[in-house]
């Protein structure tokens, strides 16, 4: 079984337990050490995985940039490289692990999630000079029922050139996710104060992510019931806090004054 080496492991594990699907790339046999295009049947029934200008992660070789077992490397924005998941029955949350592959470049790696061709989220540039095995997690609120295509690629406007990224441990929950208006009726709660000055007060233990209104993750933390999280450094505006609480995916808006 694959291991998740991330500060977000609890979130990913909880999401996987209640997930509609996942892809660890362990069963696929088509990716090689050569960048190419192709397709394979996903580990979740009915899901098709398409990849473009991508290769394996070099597991067990001198250029091993794996995360945990098999994965996939995207090369750069020129093609652009991507891996997409054609999912027949909807997505709530969509999450995956990523890391820098190869050693060239400094803080020039970026990655984004597109839903039916529209960019929904991205991460800030990452990966210092040289080798870097730091693991990141990007979780995106998709919240679409019915057939949906979710693609992991480079954000629009990414400069040309090789900016290799390893992707692994993809998972998604069923749609629809719990909306703000559903919290009281399902007795699931997360945030006590939705109008925020310097701190957010929490009513449940969870690993949380705070996203801005463009879908970028701007802060992550592990919180406990009746504890607070300092968000003084965040600019004024609207944010969405996401987490898994009591086995349910929760998203709640806050206003930072």
Automatic annotation (TrEMBL):
Could you say which residues form the signal peptide? 1-21
What are the record keywords, sorted? Signal
Q: Which domain of life is it from?
A: Bacteria
Q: Which residues form the Secretion system C-terminal sorting domain?
A: 203-254
InterPro entries the record matches: Secre_tail (IPR026444)
**Cited Pfam families:** Por_Secre_tail
Q: Where are the transmembrane segments?
A: none
Q: Name the chain's protein.
A: Secretion system C-terminal sorting domain-containing protein
């Amino acid at each position: 079984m694959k291991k998740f080496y991330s500060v977000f492991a609890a979130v990913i594990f909880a999401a996987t337990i209640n997930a509609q699907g996942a892809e660890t790339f362990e069963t696929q046999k088509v990716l090689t050490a050569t960048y190419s295009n192709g397709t394979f049947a996903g580990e979740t029934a009915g899901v098709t995985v398409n990849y473009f200008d991508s290769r394996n992660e070099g597991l067990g070789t001198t250029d091993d940039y794996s995360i945990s077992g098999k994965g996939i490397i995207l090369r750069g924005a020129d093609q652009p490289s991507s891996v997409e998941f054609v999912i027949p029955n909807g997505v709530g949350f969509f999450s995956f692990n990523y890391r820098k592959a190869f050693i060239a470049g400094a803080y020039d790696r970026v990655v984004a999630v597109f839903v039916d061709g529209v960019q929904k989220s991205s991460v800030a540039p990452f990966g210092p000079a040289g080798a870097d095995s730091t693991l990141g997690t990007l979780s995106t609120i998709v919240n679409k029922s019915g057939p949906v295509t979710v693609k992991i690629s480079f954000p629009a406007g990414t400069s040309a050139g090789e900016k290799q990224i390893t992707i692994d441990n993809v998972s998604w929950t069923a749609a629809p996710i719990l909306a703000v208006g559903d919290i009281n009726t399902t007795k699931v709660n997360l945030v006590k104060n939705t109008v925020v000055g310097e701190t957010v007060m929490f009513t449940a233990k969870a690993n949380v992510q705070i996203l801005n209104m463009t879908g970028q993750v701007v802060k992550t933390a592990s919180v406990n019931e009746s504890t607070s999280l300092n968000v003084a450094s965040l600019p004024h505006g609207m944010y969405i806090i996401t987490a898994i609480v009591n086995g349910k995916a929760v998203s709640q808006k806050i206003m930072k004054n």
